Amino acid sequence: MLCRLDAKSQDVIIDDLDFTTMPATQSAVLASKGKVIPLHNAFLKNGPWEFILTANSRNYLNLKRTWMVFTFKITDAAGKTVTDKKLFAPIQNIASSIVKNFSVHINSQLVYHNSMNYAYKSYFENLLMYSKEHKNSTLSISGYASDNNMDDKDDLGFKTRAGWVSSGKSMQVAAPISIDLTNQPRVLLNNSNLKLTAYPNSDEFLIDNYEDSGIKYKFEIEDVYCYINEMELADGLANQLEAALIEHKLFQYPLISSQVRSFFIGENRLDAPANTLFTSKMPRRIFLGLVSADAYSGTYAKSPFNFKPHGIRDIHIDYCGITIPGRPMNLDFEKGKCVEPYLMLLETLGLARNNTSCNSISFDQFKNNGFTIFGFELSPSALDSSLFELVKPTNVSIRLDFNTPTPTGGLYCIVYAEFDQIVALDYQRNPIIDTVV
């Protein structure tokens, strides 16, 4: 006897037997076109680099398709081809790592300004949130060549990047601009004047040379421009949008804002007392890692992305009167006692018990090879970007304890956090931003 598994289950006809339904017709966008935006100011090696992306255009800027394109080469201090046989290479994820920080103005009002850690923000996003297949294909345009072991002159990723620039060759790379407004799907309203300003990192930060060749390298940028995508809407729809904007007073852009902070831990310490990094509301999730102070500041001999455990014993995140984790972890990486933070990283990324995607960081890499990044999930729905969390005003602080004294020169703790945020534009295109952190 045929019956339903549950009485509430409804009848449905499979698509193979549906001869009446037709796909909807897109009639809103008349045209979509790419456009090259050159530098607005004169090129200066140390920046700033200014781009006017819209210039009060009648078209709508497709924010998520905003790229920055660089052509560069690596030379000696005199600008000549390096003849030394020792390998040198651009650092990982170079197209995004070139930029130290961005600022964005809409109609002369500041709507975005990150810390000096944009390279770390982009690296965390690409390393943690993309699969190995994505890194080896799409991200290769950004100069991403997967490392197996950081700060290793024999590593395949380092050798690949070295080959790109050997013998004075120029290289062109491109990366999407990963700032708050460009990480959400809604287009920018027309007649908005958007100015993007970028500041570059130092040559020492951007170049890896693990053999101490004694050469002072020069990271020479030959060309830089932005590539954008604009939409031309049907006049009727454009007029309706304008009328709706006047009626509702503003249009809103809900998004996830990524914030990066860092703090210094002095040498020969066994602990880092609570450092309060965010002071307004609870983030959705947090990632953090430790790098040596000289690598963070920029040195040819060390990658700024070499996240080692540095003898860490415990990490605590304090917020809303809650401590994560709720008990000491008592880690010992040298003895392999570090399964718990690796599991927490997978859970925070939504990769545990997931057979469809993976960020390719193995447990061995996490333990030994420069990929020791800790993840903490603070929100019960941290992985669902379609939902906002209830706003919980709080201070967020981080405490660390070590089994062995911190190394000579000290460490920097790099912290990446995600927050709910709303950016809005009123009918005069004035930006309105809620307080994030």
CATH fold annotation: Hexon Major Viral Coat Protein, domain 3
- Number of self-contained structural domains: 1
What is the 3D form? globular
- The CATH superfamily is Hexon Major Viral Coat Protein, domain 3
Assembly type of the chains comes to: single chain
Summarize the helices and strands and which ones pair or pack:
Blueprint: E1 29-37, E2 49-52, E3 60-61, E4 67-76, E5 89-90, H1 94-97, E6 99-106, E7 109-113, H2 118-129, H3 132-136, H4 156-165, E8 171-176, E9 194-200, H5 203-206, E10 207-208, E11 217-233, H6 235-248, E12 250-265, E13 271-278, E14 285-292, H7 293-297, E15 312-319, E16 322-324, H8 339-349, H9 363-368, E17 373-377, E18 396-402, E19 411-426, E20 431-433
Antiparallel strand pairs: 1-11, 2-9, 3-11, 4-8, 4-11, 5-10, 6-7, 6-9, 12-19, 13-18, 14-17, 14-19, 15-16, 15-18, 19-20
InterPro entries: RNR_small_fam (IPR000358)
GO molecular function, one term: ribonucleoside-diphosphate reductase activity, thioredoxin disulfide as acceptor
GO biological process, one term: deoxyribonucleotide biosynthetic process
Could you characterize what this model shows?
One of its GO terms (molecular function) is ribonucleoside-diphosphate reductase activity, thioredoxin disulfide as acceptor. InterPro entries: RNR_small_fam. The chain has 437 residues and is an alpha+beta fold. The chain has a single domain (29-433), classed as Hexon Major Viral Coat Protein, domain 3 (Alpha-Beta Complex). Helix content is 16%, strand content 33%. It contains nine helices and 20 strands. Strands 1, 3, 4, 8 and 11 form a five-stranded antiparallel β-sheet that branches. Strands 12, 14, 17, 19 and 20 form a five-stranded antiparallel β-sheet that branches. β15 and β16 (322-324) form a beta hairpin.
